[in-house]
Amino acid sequence: MRVEPQFLPSTEAVEPIRLLDEAGRLAPGAEAPLDPSRTLEALRFMMFGRAFDARCWSMQRQGRLGTFAPITGQEAAIMGSAMAADPARDWLVPQYRELPALLRHGYPVERVVLYRQGHPAGGFVPPGVRVMPYQVSLAAQLPHAVGIGWGMKLQAQSGVAMVYFGDGASSEGDFHESCNLAGIVDAPVIFLLQNNGWAISTPRSIQTAGSDIASRAPAYGFPGVSVDGNDLMAVYLVTAQAVERARQGGGPTLIEAHTYRMGAHTTADDPSRYVDPETEKGWARRDPILRVQRYLAQLGEWSEDRDAQWRKEIEADVDDAFERASRFPPPRASDLYEHVFDEVTPALARQRRWHLQEAAGGDEETG
Amino acid sequence: MSETRENLRALTFTQAVNEALRQEMERDGTVFIMGEDVAGGAGRADFEDAWGGPFRLTKGLIGEFGPDRVRDTPISEAGFIGAGVGAAATGMRPIVDLMFVGFFGVCGDQIMNNAAKMHYMFGGKVGVPLTIMTSIGAGTNSAAQHSETLYSIFAHFPGLKCVCPSGPYSAKGLHIAAIRDDDPVIVFNHALLMGRRGANVERDDVYGLHVPEDPYVLPIGKSLVAREGADVTLIGTGYTTLVCCEAAAQLAEQGYSAEVVDLLSISPLDEETILESVMKTRKVVIVDEDYPRCSVASDLSALVAEEAFDYLDAPPKRVTAPHTPVPYSQPLEALYLPNRERVVSAALSVLA
Ligand SMILES: Cc1ncc(C[n+]2csc(CCOP(=O)(O)OP(=O)(O)O)c2C)c(N)n1
After folding, report:
1. What is the mean predicted confidence (pLDDT) over A115-128?
2. B76 close contact with A: CB closer than 8 A
3. Do B329 and A118 touch (CB under 8 A)?
4. If we measure between CA atoms, which residue out of B187, B23, B220, B216 comes closest to residue B96?
5. Spans of all domains in chain A
6. Is residue B323 annotated as part of the catalytic site, yes or no?
7. How far apart are alpha carbons A78 and A74 in whole angstroms?
8. B224-351: what fold?
């Protein structure tokens, strides 16, 4: 008897789930999973995130802030998912492009200012805020999330871990190992992939020959879903379902949110050298903020007046964030030696003494 | 451009590396480059050349050699560095780019357990002529994971050669040497050096402005005397060689003649050049940006103490970063790095 090898069919990319079209119209027959007041709450964070980055960008250009990664274009992927998380019991595990999600979860905005200033106090997450620090070593946050979720499960808590990562990070071995482990232990983890088309200058097409990244999930024994990442309602819908399933013991989900980085990778990058302006224009038409505003306008919840009013308020909120950050004393030379260990070791204490003497004038403020 | 000499080519460090890569790829069809963003913008044909990595070391190469030899990889350091090991073991001469040395942990097994040990474990049958380029160094306001030096970790492993250029001339010569070497070589390029030109208009050698156009090799395993002196030896590596030269200039104003040894090769170590200088000056200050524990600086200090003890007028002195991660804050980072003042004061303390 001849045995015919059974090769698995290659998977085709599925059409991402979408609820709101570009004009902000709800798909026929669909119900909005977020009511107007929660939609407004999400929109406020989305608009704040964009305005805050714009301010930071100009400050960075003046040399007053360090390198950071803006979120422009990805606000719906970020807030659609974050709205499904409960700050009282769920953990957010970020990469570095999720600012408004962290704010909603309780990370104080002035700490973000400090972080971007390079101030040692910026990385401090206040007790009770279930947010892990930003992750710049790509994909290293993924196994952490598995441990967080698994730990909560072992303690019979109902929380889930929502971990964010990019299409670039999905190529690291950590992605595979995390998904595999999470599948085995049924960890309550939401793998929230922000596929923004780019990893610095490397397009998604070079990241993997696979059709899409969500389709990897079944191989790990849990569901994957592809969603329009510029559609607040759709991202919320799928994330809320995934969170619910995880809470019930149903294990992890991989959500691939298709979105677009509308600008530079970070302040150190110049995308005009590799991004096709036509492609970017196409994505500008799918702007996630405009889409929500158009949706709300149909409900009579949004108007030009309200838009102007909010922009004014948000600018004041941004001012306020910087003002509060400015009240922190500038870093001191002795901060170099803080937090290396829980307690400063005798050897480090000796080095510190010597260093401060040598830095002439002792522990002076540096700023 | 200075008119002091004809054909004076004051290339930046980056341009010198770029030229070395280009010339070696032209010379040898088995040489190819891969890494994250080394080509850049491959999504758009007319923009393919745009990026060339965060330090532009590979800029323009994809246009000349095509995407098969200048390859943007997925973000999979273990994958592409491991692929480099495999290709090197079977006839290619890959150059792989590890964007920042701080990411070595992701691909540590490929570097330390495989590239470093294959030749040894297979009885010398398998060579791994792999070149790893990576960027190192603080001073760019890039926080703790993008600012490390870490070469001492690699030097710890037998079987890995480690070199650290201090300027455009040594950058070109060491990259070519690394590519032609039959062992795995890691080239550590300091972020603060890459945009710079050579330091000295007067000199017409390694420490001059001029970078010869013809390919040349700087031997791996050799240190060089960047500045001759009689009273104290300052040893620098990469960027700290410049710091030592600045300190030597200041010491000269105070009437002391400092010799600067530019390590260039971290592994193997040129014990001869180091000991010769120290036995002559009888005093040594070792300047290193890496974490001080179990470091190149402590290794050099031990070498001098063991091999030249009887010649020393003072204990070897180290000027290093503190044993703490690199701070993100700019003012703290300035305090963190070894600088001219600290080297001068250390030198004065051994001269006293
Ligand atoms: C382990 C590791 N490798 C490489 C880098 C350099 N790097 C920083 S961001 C980035 C691209 C990340 O792309 P993606 O995960 O898609 O996230 P995005 O920036 O697009 O949001 C790269 C290659 C890094 N920080 N860490």
Report:
1. 93
2. yes
3. yes
4. B187
5. 36-326, 331-367
6. no
7. 6
8. Rossmann fold (3.40.50)
Distance, in Å, from the CA atom of A210 to the CA atom of A74, rounded to the nearest integer, reads 23
ipTM field:
0.92
Distance from CA of B195 to the nearest CA of A (A): 15
- Start-end ranges of CATH 3.40.50.970 in chain B? 13-190
pLDDT for residue A364 is more than 50:
no
**CATH tag for B13-190 (out of 3.40.50.970, 3.20.20.105, 3.30.230.10, 3.30.200.20):** 3.40.50.970
pLDDT, mean of residues A182-187: 98
Q: What is the pLDDT of residues B87-122, one digit of tens each?
A: 999 999 999 999 999 999 999 999 999 999 999 999
- CB A205 less than 6 A from any atom of ligand 1: no
- Residue A365 is classified by DSSP as B
Contacts across the A-B interface (CB distance below 8 Å): 142
* Architecture in CATH of A36-326: 3-Layer(aba) Sandwich (3.40)
Q: Where in chain B is the domain with CATH 3.40.50.920?
A: 224-351
| Cβ pair A199:B75 closer than 8 A | yes
Residue contact B75–A139, C-beta within 8 A: yes
Distance from the CA of A117 to the center of ligand 1, in angstroms?
21
Q: Which residue's C-alpha comes closest to atom 17 of ligand 1?
A: A166
What residues 16-35 of chain B have any CB closer than 8 A to a CB of chain A? none
Of the candidates A66, A208, A347, the beta carbon closest to that of B141 is on A66
- Of A335, A354, A32, nearest to B346 by C-alpha is A354
Q: Which of A166, A189, A170, A169 is nearest to A259 (CA)?
A: A166
- B-contacting residues of A 48-67, CB under 8 Å? 66-67
Instruction: Calculate how far, in angstroms, residue B12's C-alpha sits from the geometric centre of ligand 1.
Output: 27
